[in-house]
Specification:
InterPro entries: 6-hairpin_glycosidase_sf (IPR008928), 6hp_glycosidase-like_sf (IPR012341), Glyco_hydro_37 (IPR001661). The chain is about 35% helix and about 15% strand. By secondary structure, it is an alpha+beta fold.
């Protein structure tokens, strides 16, 4: 359930990860508290289909860029450690997995027009391969859209780095004290 398959325009399947819980709705143990806390917000974060309607919380429908970049980094690190330890087969297995995830970043998350990677929204349960559609990329600007650039596998492409740096400067995410999480002041911790 934590893995989903997205089929690109060329018919290739890409396996990516998502956060998954048995319920795709607000937390039942704190629903009333969360609903009251969010009732006054006009802007919300990345996890709602119809902001600010808290009942449209759909975390399991989001295939997040940051989760997948963290997993990619771990796959690369594991491959490196296994190679150092002399486990060539294990290392090769993780290199293969990481290369597949890298291809998925290009096919599913990358948005050349915006110069950044964007979360992908599922419109099915995720149990069957879903065909990639441009409109399923969530175009909101968040700092995590740029997370892949800090992995050496991405920063070796000078044209890509140039596009990403330009996009990072454009939406004014860079602030005097660092990088803003988003351009929306939702007053939420998440």
């Amino acid at each position: 359930k934590r893995k989903v398959v997205i089929r690109d325009a060329n018919g290739y399947d890409h396996m990516l990860s998502r956060y998954y819980a048995m319920r795709n709705m607000p937390r039942p143990d704190s629903y009333v508290f969360d609903q009251e806390s969010l009732s006054g917000f006009s802007n919300t974060t990345r996890w709602m289909r119809d902001p600010p309607n808290f009942a449209t919380m759909a975390t399991t429908s989001v295939v997040p860029v940051d989760l997948n970049v963290f997993l990619l980094k771990m796959e690369l690190d594991i491959a490196f450690i296994m190679e150092i330890c002399g486990d060539k087969n294990g290392s090769d297995r993780f290199v293969k997995v990481s290369k597949a995830r890298m291809k998925a970043f290009e096919a599913v998350f990358w948005n050349a027009e915006g110069g950044q990677w964007l979360d992908y929204w599922l419109f099915s349960s995720g149990d069957e391969p879903e065909t990639w559609k441009t409109e399923n990329q969530k175009t909101n600007v968040f700092a995590f859209n740029f997370a892949p650039i800090w992995i050496s596998s991405f920063d070796s492409n000078e044209n890509l780095v140039e596009k990403v740096v330009k996009a990072l400067e454009n939406p004014w995410l860079i602030a005097p004290a660092g990088i803003l999480t988003s351009l929306t002041n939702s007053e939420q911790q998440w």
